[in-house]
Amino acid sequence: MILPLSIFAVIISCSYGQNTSTSTIYNSTAWGDAFKGEIKIPISQQTSNGWRIRLLFYSPIPRIECWSGIVEEAEIGETTSEFTIINKPYNKVLQVGAILLVNFNANFPTGVYSLISPPVVIRFQGKIIFRSSGASPTPRSPETISTTDLLSLLNSLEAEFNSNSTNNTTNGNTTNTGNTENNGNVQNTDNIQPSATTTESQNNSATTNISTATTTTRPTIITQRPRNPVPIPAVTKYNYTEILHKSLLFYEAQRSGRLPPGNRIPWRGNSAMNDRGNNGEDLTGGYYDAGDHVKFGFPMAFSITLLAWGVVEYWDVYRTTGELDNAIDALKWGTDYLLKAHVSPNVLYGQVGDGVADHRYWGRPEEMPSGNRPAFKVDRRNPGTDLAAETAAAMAATSLAIRRKANGSETPYVRNLLTHAKQLFNFATTYRKLYHVSIPGAKKFYKSTSFKDELIWAALWIYRATGEDKYIRDAEGKYMNWGFFQLPHKLRFSWDDKKAGVQMLMVQVSRNLGYGAKRTVKNYCSAVRSRNSNYTEGGLLYLHEWSPLRYAANTAFICQMASQAGIDSEVNAAWARRQIHYMLGDSGRSYVVGFGTRSPQRPHHRASSCPPRPQQCNWSTKESLRPNHFVLNGALVGGPDYNDNFQDRRNNFKQSEVALDYNAGFQGAVAALQYQAVFPNLEILRNHEPWFLPGSTVRTTTTIRPRGSATAVSPQILMLILSVFASLFFTYSLG
Q1: Which residues contact 509 (CB under 8 A, 6 or more apart)?
Q2: Share of the chain above pLDDT 70, in %
Q3: Which label site among 71, 264, 413, 565 has the fewest CB atoms less than 10 Å from its CB?
Q4: CA dist., res. 188 & res. 208, Å (int)
């Protein structure tokens, strides 16, 4: 029997009360891929200095959560897992006669099935108070109890369990494709994987096939997630590594200011070296927005945030493709500029260059008309809540990537980013106004509809980067008060509407609202999959006639992360893959410059359209039908019309324009496809991040499990739901 599984989640709920029992009681029940248990610990001596529980499971359990305790320590080995839970301030002291009650639900690792719970040793205040039959008080080494030994026992149990069942078997040997769209025997030819029987040298984890009475191939078993996992060989329909490489080259082609010695775009040079603020502040650097030369701070910051999200989530992809340094450089090039633009706690420059004047010029950025370009700012008198909050989010998200690159160290640069992020968040929260009201020139190009999403978005990112509780409390409060559990307007996730991103980020980091946000994200991805009227005949999600590929790519990125979180994993992964593959060539052409078949030759982009110097570049260059003189590698163009038609012409800017935000979500979605191809069944861990590390209040999150699996709901939430229904019932009865 093959069932959809995730790498395992454990939720422990702790409470205490009175009981006359004098000995510890442990009850457990298993039902195949999961088990539950209950521990009752009588208190025989007052816990004046707090209490500590140590759980040793003889199974590779990834992590646990405890609502009424703090998970202080976790040691996860190949065959055992140990967790230490300590008290919280409010339940530090337990009186003699009280009882500490611990209830938990747990899953076995992916691919492991059992009708018996794993042995456990329980210590309370340093003393062993319970030991399962066959359990040792000290951890056993892998040589004593190996994964193979454990599986041999489970094989016999499962063979007996399935001896009379033939409905869910496969015909012959099944190939583990990594991404499977159906629960039957249909292989997905987009990603052809090796057999599930892989060696330890391929993925740094013990793997095996479990033979049953019906000869079924099991998914790869991940018994321990290595710090730096090794990718397995994979044959994919498109070369995702090449796309990541070229997408990062696109960002380098958009650079403004003095280029570094290692500049990889030979037809680009130093530009806009006179960019200054109103008081002479240095505003050189950053990125040009699109095919023009304006530096719009709002979409630039969003692009950096989204780009950083993909790097942080799919770190192992960037590491193993050799693009990690380039990705970090891309993020840092953006935040270096944003740090310059934030000249004081309540002053932030949000735009350099006048959009209307800039669009009257077609030429190289290196040859823009001399003189200082106008710079526009927000401050206390003319605030920009959305701009300041998005800039804070970009700094916080980037700090996570740079911190991890430094092996978890809080470098001076990371501290600087977080200092500015907190100042900007305080500025955004204190002085509220839409930024385009204070910078009117931005309204024509990037008008913002609300700042509420940016305030929650920024708070979540700062919390994730610092672990400071006040930010998650702020985000959760606003999330509920402002109704962010509803679907986004017109289902778009973009520089203007971050609601879908807020919901996905809430799933990843919120202890209190993560479960409800999971349901919202599930509904969101279900909605975009089912709205047939919003699809082209070729299968592209079509949410806007202007640059539809950016919306489809951003949505694919969200639903890829949902898939990784166990939210309709197979269907979301398959849907997102189809959207990205449409852009890479399944539509009959590639929409990525320099990649694939029939890729765009004439993107609406000034710098790449210009011939080599000293030849002239002007409006006649734009109107020419010749391909751009230089290939703008990696740039995702706007995309086709509703009938899948695309005109590859520079003056067709609605379809051929390129922009920073087009590539940000697209690159994240491509990284997700690569992750699923070369790291199948390997969960994404965030236990290296500040909000997860020792010293922060919340160190773990619930892993969202696939459809059909049991998920625990905290008693507090359950009581809240029951009280609401009771109130409605009595109100109706009395009425």
Answers
A1: 460, 463, 464, 472, 686, 691, 701
A2: 73
A3: 264
A4: 22
Report yes or no: 301 and 393 within 8 Å, Cβ to Cβ: yes
- Could you report the per-residue pLDDT of 291-345, keeping only the tens digit for each? 999 999 999 999 999 999 999 999 999 999 999 999 999 999 999 999 999 999 9
| Contact status, residue 33 vs residue 5, Cβ threshold 8 Å | yes
Mapping DSSP to helix (H, G, I), strand (E, B) and coil, where does residue 595 land? coil
- What does the DSSP 8-state code read for residue 440? G
Provide the phi-psi class of 49: left if phi over 0, else alpha when psi is between -120 and 50, else beta.
alpha
Query: How far is Cα 576 from Cα 525, in angstroms, rounded to an integer?
Result: 10
CB 628 within 8 A of CB 648: no
The rounded distance, in Å, linking the Cα atoms of 173 and 302 is 46
Helix 324-341 vs helix 297-313: angle between axes, to the nearest 10 degrees?
150
State the sign of the Cα–Cα–Cα–Cα dihedral 230, 668, 305, 268. Answer: positive
- Edge-to-edge strand list for the sheet holding 69-76: 69-76, 81-87, 52-57, 120-124, 127-131
**What are residue 347's DSSP bridge partners?**
344
Q: What is the pTM of this model?
A: 0.68
The CATH fold of domain 237-678: Glycosyltransferase (1.50.10)
CA separation, residue 523 to residues 180, 333, 408, 478, 518 (Å): 21, 36, 35, 21, 9
The strand pairing partners of 191, in sequence order, are: 236
Question: What count of residues does the chain have?
Answer: 735
Residue 316 · residue 229 · CB < 8 Å: yes
Tokens matching residue 421: 């992020």
For residues 110 and 196, is the Cβ–Cβ distance under 8 A?
A: no
Cα–Cα dist 387/141, whole Å: 54
Distance CA 488, CA 471 (A): 23
Q: Which of 423, 367, 373 is nearest to 395 (CA)?
A: 423
239 Cβ contact partners less than 8 Å away, ≥ 6 residues apart? none
Whether pLDDT at 202 is above 70: no
Number of H helices, E strands in the chain: 22, 14
Closest CA to 192 of 226, 238, 223: 238
Residue among 211, 122, 121 at smallest CA distance from 174: 211
Question: For the chain, what are the domain ranges?
Answer: 1-236, 237-678
- Do 541 and 554 touch, CB atoms closer than 8 A? no
In terms of Cβ atoms closer than 10 Å to its own Cβ (0-12, 13-18, 19+), residue 481 is exposed
Of 596, 613, 605, 681, the C-alpha closest to 637 is: 605
Q: Are the C-beta atoms of 527 and 560 separated by less than 8 Å?
A: no
Catalytic residues, by residue number, are 292, 604, 648, 657
CA distances for 271 relative to 258, 280, 360, 556, angstroms: 7, 18, 18, 35
379/433 Cα distance (integer angstroms) = 10
Pair 345, 431: CB distance under 8 Å: no
Helix (H, G, I), strand (E, B) or coil at 98: strand
Strand partners, 282: 276
Q: Are 181 and 188 in contact (CB under 8 A)?
A: yes
**Cβ neighbours around 630 below 10 Å, total:** 18
**CB-CB contact of 182 with 132 (8 Å):** no
Least confident of 149-158, 276-285, 304-313, 390-399: 149-158
| Beta partners for residue 461, in sequence order | none
Cα separation, 317 vs 670, whole angstroms = 10
Bond from prior residue into 614 cis (ω within 30 degrees of 0): yes
What residues form DSSP beta bridges with 349? 377
Q: What is the pLDDT of residue 155?
A: 42
Q: What is the mean pLDDT of residues 182-202?
A: 31
Alpha helices (H) in 431-584, listed in sequence order: 435-438, 443-446, 452-466, 469-481, 499-509, 514-530, 548-564, 569-581
* Burial state string for 315-332 with b = 16 or more CB within 10 A and e = fewer than 16: bbbbbbbebbebbbebbb
Please check the confidence at residue 567 and state whether its pLDDT lies above 60. Answer: yes
